[in-house]
C-alpha cells in the first residue's frame, strides 16, 4: 500500500510540475486574476518570517538576532509562483523580498520593474485590482521595509552612468511608483479617483474628462460645486469618495514648498557648481512671477539637471536630485496650463520651451533634441516669418509630440500588451503616463499653432467635426468608402475586411488589404504596409491618440475618406457625401487598371539550380523573379557589396506542381487552374463577390497545405546539396541562409507586391531548409498574398514563385532606401528607414527615418523599437533589446548611402527607359560595411496622384507669404 501511495504521490508531483511548466493561456490568466480578486489574501499564502540567513519561519517564530534577524511579510500562493516561471508575470510584488538585479530584470528589458508600475496603476483604478480583498490582509506588506528596499534599490542602480543616461525616462517614472521616500503618485491618484466616481455617477463624467484632459486648479471649484449642487443625490459612500478626491486635488495643486526643496538640496554632498542655478531659482522671490516665468525657469533647471546629473558621483545625491525633478515637473504641468499665449510669437516661444521640457523630462533623447533645436532658435529673431518657415516649425513641433508619445509606448507597450490580453484595464496605463507628462500641453499648444498655420495655408481637415483635428495629417493620397473600424487594442488580434477603413494605434506588419488606414503611430514611410498603400492608392493618414478616441463614437458607420496630395484629410458620414464624392464610387468610375502577369517569356524547362552570378535583370520573369534577377545584376555591378547566392528557378517549381496532388486525381497545377476556372463560372452565374472570394480562399488554403507536404525530387535535392558546397562554400546544414520567395508578379510596372510572400530567416538545419522551400512555394497561395494580388491581377493563377537562397549576414542594423523624397524632399533626395538587427524597417517597426540630401541628413523620426533580432551562426534568431540614447546611422553610414544611391542611379538608372525612375533598396551594415540585399523599382499609384477630385481638395498656397509674429492666435 505504501508503494502505491508513493507512486501516486510521484505521479501527482510530476503532473503538477508539468502543469506549471506549461505557459498559461490568457484565458487561464484571466480566471486566475478573477480568483485572486475574490480571495481575502489575493495571491498571498501566509505571513512568514524571512531571515537573513535564507531560512523561512512561521509568523509566530521570529528570526533570532543570532542569525541577523529578518523581515516579516506574506509568502505567495503556488499558483502565483508558477506564473512567474511559465509566463514571467509578477503579481502583487513584495519588494522587500526581491533581489535588486532580479527586480530590475535588465535581460527582459526591465519587464519586472515595469510590471510593478502597471500593477500599481491597476490597483489605483480598480480598488486594489488583484488585491481587491487582499489589500486588507494585515501584515502582508510592511511599508517601512518596502521603502527601505526602494531606497537601497535606487542607490544601487543609480551608480551606473550608462544605465542612467540610457534610461532617464524610465528611472524618473519608476520613482513615482516604487516607495523610497514616502512620496506617492498624486497625479495618477487624482485621475483614478475621478474615473471611479464617473463610473458610479455618469453625470460627473464631464468634470472627470476635464480633470483627465485639461487639468487646472479651478477643477477643485468644479468638484466642490458639483458636490454642493447634488448633495441630496450623493450617498455617504460617494461623499467620502468626493472628500478623498478633493484632498488629493488640493495636495496636487498645493504651492511648491521651495523651503522643502532648499532643505533637500542641502543634503546633496557633492558641492560642484551645477546646483547654483537651481539654488538661485529656489531662493528667488517669486511673488511677481507669471506662469510663463515659472515654466521657463523650471524648464531651464530640469534641462540643466538632466544634462549634468552624472557629474554627481554619489548615487544618494542623484536620487535626491531625481526626486526633485519630479517635484519640479509637477509644478511645470500645472503652470503650463496657466500660460495662455495670445500672439503667434509667444505661442512659438511656449512651443520651444515645452520641447526643451520634453528633453528635460526624458521624453526625447539628447541627440534628438540637438537635431530640432536649431529649427526653433532663429524663428523669433525677426518681426516676421514666412509661411514656409512657420510650416516647417509646426511640422517639427508635431514630430516632437509624436516622438514623446512613442517613447512612452516603446518603453511600456510590450508589457502592457501582455497584461491587456488578460486584463483590458491595462490599456489605460500608457495613456495615463502620457497625460502625466508635458506632452499633453505641448500637444495642445502645437495644435493651436497648427490651427493658425492651417488657416493661413488653407489646409483644413474635415474629420467628422472632432476637436483638435489639426493633429491629423495625410501620408498617402487616395480616397475610399467603407465601414469605419476604430481599433483601440492590439492590431494583431483584428481580422480585417478589405471593404473597411481602419484606425489603428499601430498597423500590423502583415496587414491584409483594406480600403483605407489611419494610424496614431506612423511607423515608417517605407515599411511594406506603407509601400503597398502607396502602390494601390489607399488613403493613409496619421492622427493623435485623442483623435482616435474622439472617432470611437463613429465606429461601424459608413464613411467617405480622402487624403489630398498636400496631406489634408476628409472623413465624413455617408449621408454627408456630395454628389461628386458619390460618383467616385459608381461602378464605371470605380474600375481600376488591372494588370496581366506576363507568361509568354517564361522558361519553364530550366530545371537546375542557378548560380546568382549567372543571372541579370533581364532574366526577371523568365528564369526567376526580380529579387534574384536584380540581385544577380547587383552582384556583377557591386561584387563586394553582395553575397553569393543560388536560385531555385520557376522551372523547378513547375516540375513539382505537375506532380499528382494527393487524393485529387489531378496535378497541383491542374487543381490551381480548375479553382480559378470555377471562380469564373460562379461569376457568370452572378454569385456574390464575397462567396466567390470565400470559395477561392478555401481552395487555395487546401493547395497551400498540400504544397507544404509535397515530395521533393531526388535529382533536385542532390543538385541543391552540390550547389551549397560549390557556391555557398559548405555542406547544407553548415551554412545559415535566407530563403526568399521571388515571384513573377512582383515589381511589375504598376504593382510592387512588396512583402506579400514568405522570407525565412537564418535557417541552418538541412531538414528545415527542405521544409522551408516547400513553405516559400506555398506562401504564394496564402489568403493575404491572394487578396492583395486580386486587387490588381487579371490572371492570379499564373503566379510562379522562384526562391533566392543567400547566406545570412548578421548585420548590426538594416533598412530600406527609396531613391527619392517621400512626402517631403525632392526627386534627388533619399528617404531612408533603419532599425537595429536584421529585417529592419520593412516590417513596420518604428524605425529611424531620414531624408538624406546631398548636403544634409534630416531626421524625420528616431527609432522607437526596443526589441530587435540578430542572426547567430547556430541558425534561427535571437532577440535583444536596446535603448534610444544613440542614433542608429553614423556619418560614415550616411556617406556610404549617398554613394550607393549615386552608383545605383548611374549603373542601373541609365539602363531603364525612364530617366527619373526611383528604386526601393534593402541593405544593412555589419561593422560599418554596407551589404546589399535587394533592389526593385519603386512603384507609386499615379491615378491617386492625378485624381481630379484629389486635386480639387488640394489647397494652392504661396509659401513665401510673410506673417507678422505679433498676430493674435
What does this structure look like?
Its EC number is 2.7.9.2. Keywords: ATP-binding, Kinase, Magnesium, Metal-binding, Nucleotide-binding, Signal, Transferase. Belongs to the PEP-utilizing enzyme family. It is an enzyme of class 2 (transferase). Pathway: Carbohydrate biosynthesis; gluconeogenesis. A hairpin with a 4-residue loop joins strand 15 and strand 16. The protein contains 35 helices and 28 strands. The chain is globular. The strands form seven sheets. An eight-stranded mixed beta sheet has the order 5-12-11-7-8-9-10-6. A six-stranded antiparallel beta sheet has the order 23-22-21-20-26-27. A five-stranded antiparallel beta sheet has the order 13-14-19-17-18. 45% of the residues lie in helices and 14% in strands. It folds into six domains: 183 residues, no CATH class; 64 residues, no CATH class; 200 residues, no CATH class; 129 residues, Glucose Oxidase, domain 1; 214 residues, ATP-grasp fold, A domain (Dna Ligase, domain 1), CATH 3.30.1490.20; 129 residues, 2-Layer Sandwich (D-amino Acid Aminotransferase, Chain A, domain 1). By secondary structure, the protein is α+β, with helices and mostly antiparallel strands. The protein starts with a helix and ends in a 5-residue tail after the last strand.
